Amino acid sequence: MGDLRKSSMRFFSDQNLCYADILPPSEIRARIEVAVLNFLRILASPTPAISDLPLINRRSSNSRASKGLLTQVSCVFLSHSFCTRSLMRANTAKAFIRVWKVMEMCFGVLVQEKRVTQRELFYKLLCDSPDYFTSQLQVNRTIQDVVALLQCSRYSLGIMASSRGLVAGRLLLQEPNQEVVDCSECGLSGHAISGDLNRLETLILNTDARYIIVVEKHAIFQRLAEDRVFNQIPSILITAKGYPDIATRFLLHRLARAFPDLPILALVDWNPAGLAILCTFKFGSIGMGLEAYRYACNVKWLGLRGDDLEMIPEQSLVPLKPRDLQIAKSLLSSEVLQENYRRELEIMVQHGHRVEIEALYFHGYDYLGKYIAKKIVQANYI
Amino acid sequence: MEGKRSGSQQHCDLLRKIREFTRAIVEELSNGRSPTILIDRFRNYCTNPNANCCCSYDLSYGKEILTFRKESHVHRLDILLRVLLIVQQLLQESRHGSKRDIYYMHPCIFSEQSVVDQAINDICILMQCSRHNLNVVSVGNGLVMGWIRFLEGGRKFDCINCPNMAHPIPVQVEEVKDIVSVARFILIVEKESVFQRLANDQFCNANRCIVITGRGYPDIPTRRFLRLLIEKLCLPAYCLVDCDPYGFDILTTYRFGSLVSKWPMMQNICVAQRYAGLELFLQILKNTVFLSSASFLLQEKTRGKLNPC
After folding, report:
1. Is the CB of B96 less than 8 angstroms away from the CB of A123?
2. Which one is catalytic: A19, A123, A367, A381?
3. Structure pTM?
4. Nearest-CA distance from A196 to chain B in Å?
5. Which of A298, B159, B201, B208 is deepest in the core (most CB within 10 A)?
6. Which EC class is the enzyme in (chain B) (predicted)?
7. What would the pLDDT profile of B194-220 be if each residue is shown by its tens digit?
C-alpha cells in the first residue's frame, strides 16, 4: 500500500516535484566529484568561466501543494525553479564559497564513514574558515543549499539529526537483536527518539493503542505521561518539544504506515505558532522541502481550538505578538492550508489573543486528561 | 535540607509544617491579633571581595516581617497561602506540577508568573526546604549514559547493556534506587553536541565511565542526580567545559550551586570536582574551544559574566 501511495504521488505531480534522493555514501561522493569536475571543466575550457551553482529555490514562491489523490495526505513540495549562487555577484559570493566549503567537509566525513551533527559541522567550519561562517543558522542554510545542489538528502551527506523527540505510551519498540522497550514504563520523561534515521527505519513496532497523540510542548507531554493518560485512553504520545525535527517526523510517519487505522491527533497551543507546528507535521516544510514531503502524515487538530475558548478565563488570554501575526500571515498565504484551519486562524487573528494549553489547569490538574478524552469520544477533531 | 529520610517521610514532615503554619495564623487571627510572618533574607554574593570567600553564605542576614497591617503584605500573604494550598494538594496526591501550571490555576489573582515564583521562594524559606520537595518541578533536561544501572519508580534504567545510549535523567531523583555501577569515573560535559559525539564514537566502550550532561546550565534534577551518584559510588568527577566565561559559570554551578537562587540549596549540590585536563580530551577541546589565536573578542555580555557582583 505504501508503494501504491508513493507511485500515485509521482503520477499526480511527477513533472513538478523535486525530491532529494536517499543514497549510499559512495554515490554522494560520486556526485560531489562530478560537481567538482564540471566546475574545473568549464574553468579550463577555451572560454574559461566560473560557473554558477544552480540550487532549487527554497522559497514559498517555488512551493506547491499536493492534495493527495488516492490518499488523504497532502503535502508541500518544491518545484523546478532555480536560484543561482554566483561568485561574480558581490552579495552571493560568500554564499557561493560556503557551499563549496561545506561540500568539502561532507566529502571528508563520508570518506571516513562517520556521521556528524550540524552543530559539530559548525564548530569544524568555524575553526577551519572563520571568515565565511559566523553562525549556526548560516551553516544550516548552506547545508540545505548543498542538499538542493546535489539533490540528495541531508542524512545521505553524513549529517545526522540530533535526538530531540520523545515517545511514551502503549508502544513496544525493539531494535533488531536488542531488548524490547516498553514505552509505557518510561516514567515522566518518555523514551528518547534517536537521531539516526537508519536505526529508526529498522525498529520493530508493536502497539495496542487506538490513537496517536502529538503534543507540542514538553511540559504537557510530561504532565500527560505522569498521569498515564495513555492507559485511560489507549494511545501513543509523541512530542518534538516544539518545531518537529526530521527524526520525530520520521518515526511518526513510520507509525502512521505501520498502523494506518490509528487517527493522529495534535494537541497544540491556540496560537499561530502552534498551528504552524501542526502544519509541519501534516504537510512538511519549505525549508527542507526536498525531503520533508516524504514524512507528511494525516494529522488532525484536536485542540486547542476556537470553540474551547469558553472554558478559558479571560486572564489567561495573552495578546498576540508581531511575530505571531507574521507567522499567521505566511500560513494564510500557503495554498495547502485547508478551509477549516484557515477559518480558525482568521478567528485567532481577529481575536488578537493566544492561549496556552496550561490555561486548562484552571479547572484542576486532571482536567487535561478529561478534556482529551471528551474530545476523542465526540470525534471532535478537524 | 536534604535528609537521609525517605521521600514519603519528607512529605509527611512538610504537610505537618504546612498545617502548623496555617494553625498559627488562624490562632493569631482568632485572638484578634495580626499574624506576624518572618521570612529570612539571604544574600547571593560575597560582601567582602577581599576575603577568602569562606563567608557564611548559608546564614540569613536579616528577616522580612509580613503582617496584616500593610496592604501590600496582605496581598503577598494571600498569594502565598493560595500557592501553599496548591502545593499541599500536590503533596497529598503525590503529583508534580511546574511553576507555570500553578500560575494558570488562578491567573486572575496571580496577575503574573513572577508573583507565583516569589511565593514559591517564600514557601521554600519558611518550610526550610527546596523547591523540588514541594513537588514543583520543571521538565527534565539532563542526559546520562555509561556503565550504570538503577531503578526509578519501578522503571529500570539499564545503561550497561548499551553503554552508548543516552537516557534522560529522572526528574524525581528521590525515587532513584539500587544504583549499580562498574564505572571508574564520572564525566560531566557542558554541551549536548559533545555528549552526542561521545555517544557516536562509542566512548563508553573504551572507557569505563558514566557521562552526564545538563545541556547547558544544569537544572536541579541533574545536579541532584550527580550528587546522588557521587555519594553512593564515591567516584571522581571530571568536568569538560568550553574555555569561555559561560563554561566556567557552568562549572561553578555544578560545583557550588546557582547564583540566582536565593535559598541556599548549595549544600545539596556541592560536589568535589576536578578540572578535565586529561590528554584524551585535548582533541575534542580543539574543536570546541574558541582558541585565543582566532582573536575572538569577548562580547559585553560575556564580560559581564566575569563580574557577577
Report:
1. no
2. A123
3. 0.81
4. 10
5. B159
6. isomerase
7. 888 888 788 888 888 999 998 888 888
